[in-house]
């Protein structure tokens, strides 16, 4: 039986590496005077969010793990633990990550958790660690269900998810311009992921990839970084506080306020949870589509260019 | 990794990085040097509602804006970057150092703005004209 299968908790093991890499990036920026920027309060907030993410995993991780173990009991399939199975699991789990991440930007209930990762106006290695505290409440563990039912052991799936997050650490930097062409074509890179963190209309809702950028190319969400348009990092509406509690929960509070307001229908209340961020019952706010459309009204020459193909 | 190791490592790591950043001068709050700085910070988040009157606090850490839509807006400093907020529905309070403004926003709950008496009077006058 492989029910007792265990893998190392890779994210916790990577903590010393994270700290060392941050020190190296910071030293590089201070010596070269380019390649990114740091700010004390911003970086500390990001690091506290990262620590809180690990803590929430320790406290709430049993929910996801329990759910996956129930599925494991149900499935008649067991692919075993060979290296090829782990490799396949890693690739399929990256596909799983792509969709969870895409939902994270297109469904406000999931965005309420993920928004935290985008709430810094900086883009450096500490930004990578600015992770959610409330991921369990998005119920996105259901997207892992097919993997378990196919016969990948829950511990292996979670191990691959951890490796995926560790891969994404190093791409949160402005110190690296472009990687070799073949690498940029297949892998997620600092350049591709800078686009994902941009609040520029052109860059909204692009490059959801974890490890392999091919998913974005396959599903039509890839936008290349343009040398003439530097990403403007942060949220469409940036935060006015560094308080980690407010950073972690602000969008959940926003959903709550919208849902309980008087004078709207039950359908409106549901839509405030499941429509994309920026949806409102009276059209008083802008979704990313509206932001892109307004940009094209002001800059019609951008129509049809990267990030504006749909308009 | 046992918690007895992970915990202290995380705490020391965060404290060490914070100290290093501060000592190397990365705690550098930006300033609005001119009205145009404040205007640009506003337009970055609300490009469709152009500011008319702009009052920049003497210390450059906040500015009050009267907007084309007729609403009031505030730009403030978040470390090395600006943040912009509509002040519709905000509560205003006079403090010994200036003003305390609380927008009805969980993500921007309170701004303490240092102002001279003269500047404070000008901010309150703009507010009273607007509301
Ligand atoms: Zn994202
Ligand atoms: Zn990221």
Notes on the protein architecture:
The complex is a heterodimer of chains A (311) and B (131). Chain A has 311 residues and is an all-alpha fold. Chain A has one domain (1-311). In chain A, 55% of the residues lie in helices and 0% in strands. Chain A contains 14 helices and no strands. Chain A starts with 9 loop residues before the first helix and ends in a 13-residue tail after the last helix. With 131 residues, chain B is α+β, with helices and mostly antiparallel strands. Chain B folds into 2 domains: 1-28; 35-130. Chain B has helices at 3-23, 35-45, 117-130, and strands at residues 51-56, 62-67, 72-78, 81-86, 91-94, 98-102, 111-114. Chain B has a 4-stranded antiparallel beta sheet, sandwiched between helices. In chain B, a hairpin with a 3-residue loop joins β5 (91-94) and β6 (98-102). Chain B is elongated, with a radius of gyration of 18 Å. The N and C termini of chain B lie far apart (58 Å). In chain B, 35% of the residues are buried. The interface between A and B is large, with 44 and 37 residues. Residues 117, 172, 193, 197 of chain A line the site of one zinc ion.
């Amino acid at each position: 039986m492989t029910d007792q299968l265990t893998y190392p908790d890779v994210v916790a093991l990577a903590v010393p590496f994270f700290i060392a890499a941050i020190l190296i990036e910071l030293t590089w920026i201070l010596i070269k005077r380019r390649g990114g920027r740091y700010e004390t309060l911003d970086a500390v907030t990001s690091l506290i969010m990262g620590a809180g993410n690990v803590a929430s995993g320790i406290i709430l991780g049993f929910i996801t793990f329990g759910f996956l173990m129930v599925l494991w009991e149900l499935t008649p399939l067991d692919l075993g633990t060979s290296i090829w199975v782990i490799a396949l699991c890693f690739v399929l789990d990256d596909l799983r990550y792509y969709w969870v991440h895409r939902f994270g930007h297109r469904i406000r209930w999931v965005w309420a958790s993920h928004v935290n990762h985008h709430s810094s106006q900086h883009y450096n290695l500490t930004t990578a660690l600015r992770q959610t505290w409330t991921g369990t409440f998005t119920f996105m563990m259901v997207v892992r269900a097919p993997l378990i039912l196919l016969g990948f052991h829950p511990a292996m799936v979670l191990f691959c998810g951890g490796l995926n997050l560790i891969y994404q650490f190093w791409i949160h930097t402005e110190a690296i311009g472009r990687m070799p062409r073949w690498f940029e074509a297949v892998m997620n890179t600092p350049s591709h992921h800078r686009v994902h963190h941009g609040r520029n209309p052109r860059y909204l809702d692009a490059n959801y990839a974890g490890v392999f950028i091919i998913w974005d190319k396959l599903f039509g969400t890839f936008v290349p970084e343009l040398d003439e348009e530097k990403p403007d990092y942060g949220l469409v509406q940036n935060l006015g506080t560094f308080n980690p509690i407010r950073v972690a929960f602000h969008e959940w509070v926003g959903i709550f306020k919208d849902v309980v307001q008087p004078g709207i229908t039950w359908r409106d209340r549901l839509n405030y949870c499941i429509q994309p961020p920026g949806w409102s019952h009276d059209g008083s706010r802008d979704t990313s589509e509206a932001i892109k459309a307004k940009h094209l009204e002001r800059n019609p020459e951008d129509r049809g260019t990267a990030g504006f193909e749909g308009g | 990794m046992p918690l007895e190791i992970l915990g202290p490592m995380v705490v020391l790591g965060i404290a060490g990085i914070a100290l290093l950043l501060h000592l190397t001068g990365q705690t550098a709050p930006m300033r609005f040097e001119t009205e145009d700085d404040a205007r640009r910070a506003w337009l970055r988040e609300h490009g469709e509602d152009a500011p008319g009157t702009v009052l920049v606090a003497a210390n450059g850490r906040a500015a009050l804006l009267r907007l084309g839509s007729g609403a009031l807006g505030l730009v403030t400093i978040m470390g090395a970057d600006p943040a912009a907020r509509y002040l519709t529905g905000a509560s205003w309070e006079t403090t010994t150092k200036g003003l305390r403004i609380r927008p009805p926003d969980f993500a921007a709950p309170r701004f303490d703005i240092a102002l001279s008496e003269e500047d404070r009077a000008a901010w309150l006058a703009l507010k009273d004209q607007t509301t």
